[in-house]
Design goal:
Protein name: Alkyl transferase
Radius of gyration: 31 Å
CATH class of the domain at 30-162 and 202-253: Alpha Beta
Region (Disordered): 290-336
EC number: 2.5.1.-
Subcellular location: Endoplasmic reticulum membrane
CATH superfamily of the domain at 30-162 and 202-253: Decaprenyl diphosphate synthase-like
CATH architecture of the domain at 30-162 and 202-253: 3-Layer(aba) Sandwich
InterPro entries: UPP_synth-like (IPR001441), UPP_synth-like_CS (IPR018520), UPP_synth-like_sf (IPR036424)
């Protein structure tokens, strides 16, 4: 049904207007500043719909453009997409060549038109082990970076080719190289700064499509933060629509607003370190905290039980002492 609707005259204009409208609505609440996307399911979609695999990848690229447009309308500052894994070099030479050709053609279009980048002020940044790319592909990608380098409103990190293990290895090598020139304090912050995403905000939301419940070596360091929500979607990537992304953003903003974190865990969105005034402290103390109260009740019950046990033990000790005294008197009389 959705494929038929997309062919209706005026569909694209209506979709673009809808993105702008809902984008303004989303901006009234919390908005994730950094969103990561694992665009999975292009090949399965092609096999399911009996089309060539290269057509599945092409449809996936169009989906990416639609989703990115919505994200930037909503106020997302950085989007990081998993475009090509280093592990994908293990696929057939035909598919690898097609993926490289697809990248060249699509980025060439961006270089010629660049409507999305111009409209939203998007700067494209390539991250990954670029030494593995063919020279002609790397040239076009570098040209795209150069054309968009002055855009400052938003950033699109294109992971091509990329794995998180390779990223962390690169970070360690960079730290070692830097330490030979100057004194470096090595800690978690140091490693985070040397990652490919070191200049990006912390990852707030990670979305993976195709119903696969794993991260496939993508942003492993960045997504372990308790402030990062990970969402797995059953739909294949070409089937993933802006409406699906919109629902995820609404749910993220709702949990962030009411619970203070994107996953919705916790009974109260505020903690003591968030309180900045005596009024806030009074409000916090007057707010019911079910978990805390229940814990206090249990503590009181345990204290009462401990008191009862102690009293009972004291009575038993007194009884034993009296019995010992009586036995001692009997023994004394026998001895006399």
């Amino acid at each position: 049904m959705s494929d038929w609707v997309s062919t209706f005259p005026g569909y694209k204009q209506a979709l673009s207007s809808g993105k702008k409208f809902f984008g303004r609505v989303i901006q009234t609440g919390p908005v994730p500043q950094h969103v990561g996307i694992i665009m999975d399911g292009n090949r399965r979609y092609a096999r399911t719909h009996k089309i060539e695999i290269k057509e599945g990848h092409s449809l996936g690229f169009n989906t990416m453009a639609n989703i990115l447009e919505l994200l930037y309308e909503c106020g997302v500052k950085v989007a990081t997409v998993y475009a090509f894994s280093i592990e994908n070099f293990n696929r057939t030479s035909y598919e690898i060549k097609w993926l490289m050709d697809l990248a060249k053609s699509k980025f060439a279009q961006i270089n010629q038109n660049g409507l999305l980048c111009e409209e939203y002020g998007v700067r494209i940044k390539l991250i990954g082990n670029l030494k593995l790319l063919p020279a002609d592909v790397l040239e076009i990608l570098r040209e795209t970076e150069e054309i968009t380098k002055n855009n400052t409103r938003a950033v699109l990190n294109v992971c091509f080719p990329y794995t998180s293990r390779d990223e962390m290895t690169h970070a360690v090598k960079s730290i070692v190289s830097e330490s030979t020139k100057e004194r470096v304090i090595i800690n978690e912050d140091t490693l985070a700064r040397h990652l490919y995403t070191g200049n990006s905000p912390p990852l707030d939301l990670l979305v993976r499509t195709s119903g696969t419940y794993r991260l496939s070596d993508f942003l492993l360091w960045q997504c372990v933060s308790p402030d990062c929500a990970i969402v797995f979607v059953e739909k294949l990537w070409p089937e993933f629509k802006p409406w699906d992304m919109l629902k995820i953003l609404v749910n993220w903003g709702f949990n962030k607003y009411w619970y203070g974190n994107s996953s919705g865990s916790g009974l109260n969105p505020r903690t003591l370190r968030d309180l900045e005034s005596d009024t806030d402290l009074e409000l916090f103390n007057s707010t019911p905290h079910v978990g805390f109260e229940r814990r206090s009740e249990l503590d009181d019950d345990e204290e009462e039980e401990d008191t009862d046990v102690s009293s009972q033990l004291g009575t038993e000790e007194e009884t034993m002492t009296s019995e010992d005294d009586a036995d001692a008197k009997v023994n004394t009389k026998i001895a006399q």
